[in-house]
Design goal:
By secondary structure, this protein is α+β, with helices and mostly antiparallel strands. The protein contains five helices and nine strands; from the N terminus they run βαβαβββαααββββ. Helix content is about 25%, strand content about 25%. The protein is globular, with a radius of gyration of 17 Å.
Length: about 220
């Protein structure tokens, strides 16, 4: 079994949007939730999850620093609220080419460094078992990259919380407008993961500083 820590490469939120996510997570906690976002349980948009040894973790930070120097800040538009059958309350974003591009660069750089397969995904499924049941594209991604939310399965989002009773009804029409989460996202980070896809510790953070001269995807995955 792979007992190494799991790491998540993420986009961190602008300060005002970060506080909004924390506030909403706290407000819905009265319905019974698995976690509440805070200044120590970081709201984020996931790009790639993997296990790394301590040596490879250092190399991963170096590679992410290089990516951040070249990549531009991302203008993201909030799209809609969603709640899935796993109890996750999420705010989704439109997916501009730029965010797909940076995800591809992250995966191309870090996938060769990962150590095997994560034991579980954020909703608690055993990946070794789930990959045999997953849709063909997702299974191919798990087998090649150790992560399924790539290509058509990459739907940028912030997970606000997870309800203990997975079927807890939430009227998302009463939630703040998705546009509340629109803004310029310019911080790439490497985080250590906890349960339910949470980010429990920021290992390193990098400001997106550059002008990405090559706006072509790298061709490691297909984009819809």
């Amino acid at each position: 079994m792979n007992n190494l820590p799991v790491y998540d490469v993420v986009l961190l939120l602008p300060n005002d949007i970060n506080q909004t996510a924390i506030t909403i997570s706290s407000q819905v906690a009265r319905y019974g939730t698995e976690f509440t976002l805070s200044d120590n349980l970081y709201p984020h948009i996931s790009l790639y999850m993997a296990n790394f040894t301590s040596t490879k973790l250092i190399e991963a930070q170096h590679l992410l620093s290089k990516i951040a120097r070249d990549a531009t800040a991302l203008t993201l538009q909030g799209s809609h609220w969603g709640k899935n059958d796993q109890g996750m309350l999420e705010i989704f974003f439109q997916r501009p080419l730029e965010i797909a591009h940076i995800q591809e660069r992250v995966i191309a750089a870090l996938n060769p460094l990962r150590h095997g397969l994560r034991v579980k995904d954020p909703v608690g499924r055993l990946l070794e078992q789930y990959r045999h049941q997953a849709p063909d594209e997702a299974r191919a991604h798990i087998e090649q990259y150790g992560y399924d939310e790539i290509g058509t399965f990459f739907k940028p989002h912030i997970t606000i919380t997870r309800f203990k009773q997975r079927s807890t009804p939430i009227d998302t029409t009463l939630m703040p407008s998705p546009a509340t989460f629109s803004g310029i996202y310019n911080t790439l980070a490497l985080c250590e993961m906890g349960e339910h896809g949470t980010c429990t510790q920021i290992v390193a953070r990098f400001t997106l500083l550059g002008k990405d001269r090559d706006n072509k995807t790298l061709g490691i995955v297909e984009n819809d």
